[in-house]
Every structure is written in C-alpha cells, then in structure tokens.
Design a protein that fits this description.
Blueprint lengths: L3 E7 L3 E8 L4 E8 L11 E2 L1 H19 L6 E8 L4 E5 L9 E2 L7 H7 L9 H4 L8 H11 L3 H6 L3 E5 H9 L9 E3 H4 L14 H7 L8 E3 L2 E6 L8 E7 H8 L8 E5 L3 E8 L10 E6 L7 E8 L3 H9 L9 H6 L9 E3 L17 E3 L7 H27 L6 E4 L6 H11 L3 E4 L4 H14 L5 H7 L2 E5 L5 H16 L8
Parallel strand pairs: 1-5, 5-12, 9-10, 13-19, 19-20
Antiparallel strand pairs: 1-2, 2-3, 4-7, 6-8, 11-12, 13-14, 14-16, 15-16, 17-18, 20-21
Helix pairs in contact: 9-14, 10-12, 12-13
C-alpha cells in the first residue's frame, strides 16, 4: 500500500520535488535553481529545457535522499509559477522560444492596443482579469508574431502552448511519446483565454488574440488522474494540477468561503475563497478559479497579486551586493530601529494589484544623508507588508467581510521582523502553519485526493496546525501615519514609462 504523495513544485527561481506522508509532513525534498534570463529591460525568460532537466534531477534527488521507492507514492501532483508561457513543437518536443515569465512586460504594446476598444477592463466580465502584461494570452500572441515560422506552425496544428504545469505534465507523462496535453481550471484562469462561467476556452477571445484553438491544452479539474508518469516516477498516476497560489490556498486548507491566505515568495499573492460563484472585483483584484475537485463544482477566489516581494531581497543580494544570502536581510534590517524615513516601492515590473499600472517603475523616496544600508534593508521588507495591506483593504471592500487573521506561507514567513511588522501594519494576527511550504503540499493533497490516498478534504483540515502567531503591537496612530507615507510613495512611481 502506498505511503506517500509527491509534488513537483516548479517555481519562478527553482524547481523542487517534495514527498509528504499521510499526516502532511515532509518526508523528502530536493531543489534546484534555474537561470533568470534578462535579454532587455523589462524582459524575463526561462529556458524550458533547463527547467525540465532540473525537474528530472530533483525527482531522482528527493527519492534518493528520502530512501523512498517511487512505487511507494500514491500519486504525484504538479504546481507551478502561473502565467509563464511556453510554446513548443509537439513533434520535436522543443520550445520555439524561451518561456516568457509572468513578470515580463514586453506585451505592454499588445495590451495597450487591445485596450483601445473597451479599455483595460474590456475582457474582465468574461475572464475576471484586466488587460495586463502579467497574463499568458498576450505572451502567446507575442511569440506567434515575433518568432519566425511560429504562426504558420501554429496554424498547421504543430505547436502546443502551456503554462509551466502543462509543459511539465506533458514531459512527465511521455512528451513526444504520448504525453498528455492538459491544464487545470486554476492555471487556465490565468491565461485571459478561459471563460469563468463555462470553464472552457473562449472562442471570441482566441480570435481576438489570433491564437489557434489547437495549441491549447484540455482544461481539467485540479484533482483528477490525467495520465501516468514515465522515467523515475514510472507507473505513478499524475493526478493533481494547481497554479502555485491556488495550491497554497489548498495546502492551507482554505476550503470555506471567507478563508484567506497570503504567500510570500518571489511575488506576494493573497487569495480569498469566495465559494462556488465568481465575485467581480470593483477594487483592482482578480476574479480567479481557486480549485476544482473531480466532478464537484469549481470554487472561485479573489486574488491580490504583488509582483515583487522576495525578488526585492534577491535584487539587494544579486544586483547591489548588499547581502550575501537572502536570509541576511533580517539581521541587516535589525541594525536600525526604523526605516529612517524612507520607503522603497519595488515597481520593477509595473504595479499589480490594486493599481494595474504597467507604466510604473521602482522608487526609493525620502532619502537623506542619515540613511544607511540598514534602512534600505528595512524599507525593502516593509514594502512587502505595505503592499499586502493594500491588497487586504481591497479584499475587505469587495467581499464585505473584514479579515480577522491572515494565514501565511512561503519562504519569507521565517523572517520574524517582517511577520511582526506585517501584523502591526494590518492590525490583525498573522498565523504561520507547521508546514509553511503549503504550495507543494496543496499539489500533493490534490493528487492524493484523486486516487483516494486522502478520502475527503476534512482529512486535510485535520493535518493543519499552527506553528507561530504574531499579534499586532503598534498603536493605531503610528500605523496610520506609516501607511499614509507608503501611499504617497506609491504615487511617485506612476507614469514613469511614457508610451
């Protein structure tokens, strides 16, 4: 009898394979970073072949480290950086171009052109999203229009598109030798091509974008058996697929309407379960799919997406050399008592929720001779907390339900300074679960549910436990003053890039 469930977690900066037991505890893990490619300002790419090689390496690595035989896995799930766009030749199995990453802003002209009729919210009623460089549809359009021969091949039915989940699942299940070309509702909802009501590709939008239907994967539930793995996982059902933020919602067991989580990774993403009906946002949030379990009704969510949070710490490390490793940021921030009067707004890829301004760029404001690198480190951490508050306020307005506590996960939640400031600036408790890597856990849960390794979602709730809670300590007046300063700083980023 199977003892474990596995998850491929294909993220923006690295790929992991994680193995979980029935109690949701980590049994094995292996992780490998991949190159971030920056051909021009605002362009971000990954090499899909490098990512696939890393995926194979970490699967073998985690099994070996944990001394687990693949046949002891009940199923494997996949979770992935969303919106990152791969177009590949289904005959050769080779990408026609590098993967265009979700942060990439090269499609701004395409989005502006589409917005000339009906504005930025032209498609929002159907897809829940504004026209923005973030989403996959315009990225596919760019590849078809800019890569020699791609459009002709696509029209002949020779090319496949997928977010990273589709690319990984196709390869894991055999690639050119019978690989299945699928995605799930959560990933499909990030393309700007899926109708929220029908959960099918929208023919009118495909025509508008010039994307042949034959390129697109079949849309499936987030928890069902798609196919069987080959290679190191030979014979294991591939049975879960969730975009990374929806996987974290699932892993945090936010199965009831009104439950929310925030994931602190490369970017920051807050999701609120809104139940089985989509809730249109009036405050700059995205209406998205949360998950779909088998034949049960789909569950929707409101999402606030922030482009740059953990990536700002990496930038201080890699571009400025201010720290040697990402974890050093906390000690550096703690060399000072406050931010020294500065704010750091990291609009490197424009501003996401709740502004959706592609023409914004990053700023540090309030600089004086007094400011040192400790203040810059602290302001970088605080930026994550301020952006989270902006999203939370939008969520409260849209849902009409004030959040009473925030469940958090991701790499940055082990930074006590940030988590305390987050609680202070929100004025609500911040709760970290025992298993903070809930993205991979969510994918494993989805896969395990599909094959009966877990019988029902209540079994998953029973696995969830609190590791640490931060309570707000800041007084109301100080909280308001600091946040007002942030809002002023954000205004300074607007309109930097002239179209």
């Amino acid at each position: 009898m199977a003892k474990y469930a596995g998850a491929i977690d294909q993220g923006t900066t690295s790929t992991r394979f994680m193995i979980f037991d029935h109690a949701g505890q980590v049994v094995g893990i292996d992780q490998k970073e991949h190159e971030q490619i920056y051909p021009k300002p605002g362009w971000v790419e990954h090499d899909p072949m490098e990512v696939w090689a890393a995926t194979q390496a970490v699967i073998a690595g985690a099994l070996a480290k944990a001394h687990v035989d693949a046949k002891d896995l009940a199923a494997v799930g996949v979770t992935n950086q969303r919106e990152t766009t791969v177009v590949w030749d289904k005959i050769t199995g080779k990408p026609v171009y590098n993967a265009i990453v979700w942060q990439d802003t090269r499609t701004d002209l395409i989005c502006n052109e589409l917005a000339k009729v009906g504005g930025q919210d032209r498609l929002r009623a159907k897809v829940g999203l504004p026209l923005a460089t973030y989403f996959s549809g315009p990225k596919i359009k760019w590849i078809l229009e800019n890569v020699a021969g791609a459009k002709e091949k696509a029209e002949k039915g020779e090319l496949y598109f997928g977010n990273m989940d589709s690319w990984i699942i196709w390869n894991v299940t055999g690639g050119v030798n019978g690989g299945v070309h699928v995605t799930d509702v959560s990933n499909a909802s990030r393309t700007m091509l899926m109708n929220l009501e029908t959960l099918q590709w929208d023919e009118e939008i495909l025509k508008l974008m010039g994307i042949p239907r034959s390129m697109l994967p079949d849309i499936k539930a987030s928890s069902e058996v798609y196919g069987t793995a080959v290679g190191a996982l030979a014979g294991i059902p591939v049975a879960g697929d969730l975009g990374d933020q929806q996987a974290a919602l699932f892993g945090q067991t936010c199965f009831s309407a009104g439950e929310a989580k925030n994931t602190y990774g490369t970017g920051c993403f807050m999701l609120l379960n809104t139940g089985t009906k989509p809730v249109p946002s009036k405050n700059g949030l995205l209406t998205t799919l949360g998950y779909k379990i088998g034949k049960e009704p789909a569950v929707y969510a409101l999402e606030g997406s922030i482009a740059i949070t953990g990536a700002l710490v990496q930038w201080l490390r890699d571009n400025l050399g201010l720290i040697q490793k990402s974890s050093d940021i906390e000690a550096l921030a703690n060399t000072v008592e406050d931010n020294g009067g500065i704010y750091f707004v990291p609009a490197f890829s424009g501003l996401f929720a709740p502004y959706w301004k592609n023409d914004a760029r990053g700023v540090i404001v309030g600089m004086t001779r007094y400011v040192n690198k400790g203040h810059i480190a602290r302001a970088a951490l605080e930026a994550t907390a301020y952006q989270t508050r902006e999203v939370l306020e939008a969520m409260n307005k849209d849902s009409g339900v004030p959040l009473t506590a925030l469940k958090v996960d991701g790499g940055m939640v082990f930074n006590d300074t940030l988590m305390q400031f987050q609680s202070d600036i929100l004025g609500v408790p911040v709760i970290r679960p025992k298993v903070a890597e809930t993205t991979a856990l969510g994918a494993a849960y989805a896969a395990g549910l599909a094959v009966g390794f877990w019988a029902k979602v209540e079994d998953l709730r029973a696995n969830w436990g609190v590791d640490k809670t931060w309570e707000p300590k800041m007084d109301t007046a100080k909280r308001a003053k600091l946040f007002d300063g942030w809002l002023e700083a954000v205004k300074r980023t607007f309109g930097w890039i002239k179209q």
